Amino acid sequence: MKTMKWDRKPLGTVADLCLGKMLDQNKNRGEPFPYLANVNVRWGVFELNNLRTMRFEPKEMDRYGLKFGDIVMCEGGEPGRCAIWKDQIFGMMIQKALHRIRPKALLDYRFLFYSFLHIGHSKGFDQYFTGATIKHLPGEKLAKVEVDIPPIPIQRRIAAILSAYDELIENNQRRITILETMARNLYREWFVHFRFPGHENHPRVSSALGEIPQGWEVKKLGEIAEEMRRNVPKGELDEPQPYVGLEHIPRRSLALDAWETTLELGSNKLEFKNGEVLFGKIRPYFHKVSIAPFDGLCSADTIIIRARHSAYYAFVVACVSSDAFVAEASATANGAKMPRANWGVLEKYKVIIPTGGVARQFSTLFTKILGQQQALIFQIQNLRRTRDLLLPRLLSGQIDVETLSHA
């Protein structure tokens, strides 16, 4: 148990807090710099693909810029969600939807992050939220969030124990990214550039999509894939179910490695099956397309896509997660402020179908990559589960970290 009483102080007294800059193209001046928005911040990690830029003046660089060890936290969306900035990209700034939290000398930045993670898991931020429908965590409320302040050596030992799990998680995530690149390159080489094994012996013929290898066909996506709509009404569930919201689906990654468990639905949802594709229909240009690693429930703002035949499974997954298909979904989306992709339009998307032999070869290679990704996803979940079991015990002082450090 804890051997001494730790100080407990409001965050505003132990860290410098700053909200990011308002995006206003008509008023912003200065040089363009990349910036983080709410969608770029997940628990413990940043999504840094397709960053946008905003103009910043020299006098704004210190105020809105990030330094190593800063914690970047969502003000809205999922208020409290945060990650540690480790100089991943030079000159990074933040937009108004984010808080920059810079701990003072008596706080270790990693310890503070794990304190936030524990508060988030236990819904400790909820009491500070404003807004009835869309929740926010404004700066004046964030400053009142109380955090424990053990001695710095204790903070560092706790952070070191928990960081060991996160380093393994990050290694697995890097491996997933490498596999993702391999999968995309494989699809691009075979079905965009037609450089598949033995392509030299396949003459090209004319088609509705230009020249394609002889024996291949042009079909509509709806001929080989279908949308699955298994509606689940709001209310209590018979047993806990994994739930995937749009906020859980990563950008530009087939590897779905985050979800939650629920016993009650506040609105109608959809049921999905293991291996089906979850395609985020709202603002499809965010490129939220992943494979379900289990059976579960998802937001009704998701298009669930399934191959009509197992022989086309790998091709369908690769196709609907490609940049070209996401661009088509974005171009044909309905709505100005909140554009939504429409399967009724997308099922008419023309695809080039290979011969059986090429399809089988591609399926073997592509599904092997997917299998390796899925194995890494479940390793990540096991690591997170172990870390999260330790988290409250370490932060409450139930585990004597001085004893552990000398064991």
Strand and helix layout:
Elements: E1 7-10, H1 11-14, E2 15-19, E3 31-36, E4 41-42, E5 45-46, E6 52-56, H2 61-64, E7 71-74, E8 82-84, E9 93-94, E10 98-103, H3 109-121, H4 139-142, E11 146-149, H5 152-191, E12 204-205, E13 212-213, E14 217-220, E15 225-227, E16 230-232, E17 235-244, E18 260-265, E19 269-272, E20 277-280, E21 289-291, E22 296-299, E23 302-307, H6 313-320, H7 323-331, H8 343-346, E24 350-353, H9 356-395, H10 401-405
Helix pairs in contact: 5-9, 6-9
Descriptive report:
With 407 residues, the chain is an alpha+beta fold. It folds into 2 domains: 7-149, DNA methylase specificity domains (Adenine-n6-DNA-methyltransferase TaqI, Chain A, domain 2), CATH 3.90.220; 176-369, DNA methylase specificity domains (Adenine-n6-DNA-methyltransferase TaqI, Chain A, domain 2, Alpha-Beta Complex). Helix content is 32%, strand content 24%. It contains 10 helices and 24 strands. The protein has a 5-stranded mixed beta sheet with strand order 16-19-22-17-18, with no helix packed on it. Strands 2-10-7-8 form a 4-stranded antiparallel beta sheet. Strands 15-23-20-21 form a 4-stranded antiparallel beta sheet. β20 (277-280) and β21 form a beta hairpin. The longest helix has 40 residues, at 152-191. The two termini are 17 Å apart.
Return the CATH architecture of the largest domain. Alpha-Beta Complex
**Helical element count?**
10
Reading off the top of the CATH hierarchy, the class of the largest domain is best stated as: Alpha Beta
What is the multimeric organization of the chains shown? single chain
| CATH homologous superfamily identity of the largest domain | DNA methylase specificity domains
